[in-house]
Amino acid sequence: MDKACELTVVIPTFNERENVAPLIDRLRATLQGVAWQAVFVDDNSPDGTAEAVKAIAAVDARVICLRRVGRRGLAGAVLEGAMASAAPYVAVIDADLQHDETLLPGMLASLRTGKADLAIGSRFIVPSGLDRGLSPIRKLGSRLANGLARVVLKTDVSDPVSGFFMIRRDLIDRVAPQLSSHGFKVLFDIIASQSHPPRISEFAYEFAERQAGASKMDGRVIIEYLGLILTKLTGNLVPPRFLLFGLVGASGVVVQLAVVSACHAIGLVFMLSQVIAALTAMTSNFLINNIITYRDRRLSGVRLLTGYLRFCLLCSVGLIANVAVANLAHEHTSIWWLASAAGAVAGAAWNYVSTSVAVW
Ligand code: GDD
Ligand code: MN
């Protein structure tokens, strides 16, 4: 009988067809003598990544392809790959060859000996950074993201947002139900969710430049990350999506002011202008939230219409709550903007909670 699998390497993919075969070759070379398996978790990439994996899986039983349909997201993909593992150790590595897979045997050794529970491939052990694969703006962003993460984690990890690490499987299993399936910061979330701080070994490597394909990091990923930080800072009180929802709400204020001024310019009376502007802002908030904040639960067809009506109704209640709380606050403080902000936060909280239950 074959040796039981000791190490599951989880590889999230989205449009990485060209990188699949070279990565598997590298894993085969570096993991000689280890009983490993590679679980590719592909979000139905249009470029045929899953087919490329399955072509190899057909001749190498260590390679597995989990093709997810109707879902997108790096964190969720990593989580599902890890959940498929029965091995004692799980590693996560990007498919795009930017991570140095030759660190894997050393990482495995540090877990096997019990020296660490978690091994992290780090770009920042050297203060100058080993991140030539990042653009200057990403270099800065990455350092900011790391700094914020360290504040929340209260541990001394040089690269807590690394996408390259190895961990004892039981540590993920234990916290899996609490992990967010959105965004990029899987490792940060795993560390932040542990009840006891894990023992960590760090391994320096140079983050290489991408050879084929493109990065999927974008503004939404960054906002989701900040949302997750907010969640952890508030002891899980504020959900990660709230920040995005709040930003969309703020965009509604801009829309409203723009429409009012346009109505004013064409000579409409103020009251009518205000009604038109408020309705436009509510509509644009609904549509943007449907496209971005709730991308994974997007409404369409008749449900888009009924969802819209519910959204308008609930947000009207939110408006009343906003004014009521602001008035109440104003009785206790003479700082008008503080009272007004308290109203806005209360209204936004109501809107978020009620629409997340009744609309999406
Ligand atoms: N299944 C799935 N679904 N995979 C995804 C998705 C998704 O929605 N988005 C990205 N991936 C895969 C990519 O195909 C790649 O294998 C890996 O996740 C990393 O994605 P990139 O888009 O290449 O990320 P990056 O290089 O910009 O970011 C790297 O550095 C970050 C820290 O700065 C990654 O290692 C991140 O994990 C890391 O947080
Ligand atoms: Mn990459």
Describe the structure.
The longest helix has 31 residues, at 302-332. The model has no long low-confidence stretch (mean pLDDT 92). The chain has helices at residues 17-30, 49-57, 74-83, 104-112, 136-153, 169-175, 186-193, 219-233, 241-265, 270-293, 302-332, 336-358; strands spanning 7-13, 36-42, 63-67, 89-92, 118-122, 165-168, 200-204. Strands 3-2-1-4-6-5-7 form a 7-stranded mixed β-sheet. The chain is of the alpha/beta class. Helix 1 links the parallel strand 1 (7-13) and strand 2 (36-42). The chain folds into 3 domains: 7-233, Alpha-Beta Complex (Spore Coat Polysaccharide Biosynthesis Protein SpsA, Chain A), CATH 3.90.550.10; 239-298; 302-360. The chain is 54% helix and 10% strand. The site of guanosine-5'-diphosphate-alpha-D-mannose has 23 residues, from strand 1, strand 2 and helix 3.
What is the distance, rounded to the nearest whole angstrom, between the alpha carbons of the first and last residues?
A: 49 Å
Number of strands: 7
Kindly report the CATH topology of the largest domain. Spore Coat Polysaccharide Biosynthesis Protein SpsA, Chain A
CATH class categorisation of the largest domain: Alpha Beta
General shape: elongated
How would a textbook summarize the main sheet?
A: 7 strands, mixed
Strand content: 5-15%
**Which ligands, by name, code or SMILES, are bound?**
guanosine-5'-diphosphate-alpha-D-mannose, manganese (II) ion
Count of helical segments?
A: 12
From N to C, what is the helix and strand string?
A: EHEHEHEHEHEHHEHHHHH
Total domain modules: 3
Structural class: alpha/beta
